[in-house]
Amino acid sequence: MLLDPEKITYRLVRSQRRTVMIRVEPTAQIVVKAPWSMSTSVIDRYVVSQRDWIVRKVEEANARLSLIPQKTSPRQVYLRGNLLSWGWHDADIILPSGISAQAAPQWLARWQRAAAKDHFSSVINEYLPLLGVPALRYSGFALRKMRRSWGLCATNGVITLNEHLIRTPDICIRGIIVHELCHLVHFNHGPEFHSMVADLLPDHRIADALIDAWTIIIDV
Ligand SMILES: [Zn+2]
């Protein structure tokens, strides 16, 4: 998307807030949050004053989006950052002949869930020994379909992972799993937590930026 600096189109969200804030969504859309009392001409002037920052953020978001392969057929599913074809023959994923076309989505959802269980547990087992004694707090992981979150770590040591995470690239999967495992050691987002994440996954910034773009496929 080319951005004409004089004509920046944005979605305006009014609220009780006191200040104006600009956010570029993972979809590259621009959202401006502003107080009720601020006139649209003031908001417009502010947006134009921030155009260099906005253009850069939109370009970054578009660059990340361009890395996501686009479906060219309805018979494709995402797995670990790639698109796999499915069908009853000549496909990456071969469905049993007893599965009808109507039953295929459900069968594929089960297949993806099983792939997620398998892959997530192998990544978790790879990192657990690096946590030291706090690894003993780990008490398993659960899969859940979540709209707003890729992963959670509860105080009882259970890690919940979004089952759609299996669709994203391996670096993103590692990013989320390492983040949640580090919460077994530091139950906050303080400096020690961040330095532990960086030690275990030096590419964590790339993982964080990429996973933001992949949120667009959560609803797919
Ligand atoms: Zn966290």
Percent strand equals 15-25%
State the name of the first-level CATH class of the largest domain: Alpha Beta
Q: Can you count the helices?
A: 6
Structural class: alpha/beta
| Major pleated sheet | 3 strands, mixed
What helical percentage do the residues reach?
A: 25-40%
CATH superfamily of the largest domain: Metalloproteases ("zincins"), catalytic domain
- Total E-strand runs: 9
Low-confidence stretches: none
Number of domains: 2
Q: How would you state the average pLDDT, rounded? A: 92
Rounded radius of gyration (Å):
21 Å
Question: Could you explain how this protein is built, in words?
Answer:
There is one protein chain. With 220 residues, this protein is α/β, with parallel strands linked by helices. It has six helices and nine strands; from the N terminus they run E-E-E-H-H-E-E-E-H-E-E-E-H-H-H. It has helices at 40-49, 51-65, 104-127, 170-182, 191-200, 204-214; strands at residues 11-15, 21-24, 30-35, 76-79, 82-87, 93-94, 141-144, 151-153, 159-162. The chain has a three-stranded mixed beta sheet with strand order 1-3-2. Strands 4-5-6 form a three-stranded mixed beta sheet, with no helix packed on it. A three-stranded mixed beta sheet has the order 7-9-8, with helices on one face. Helix 3 (104-127) packs across helix 4 and helix 4 crosses helix 6 (204-214). The structure holds zinc ion. The site of zinc ion has 3 residues, from loops.
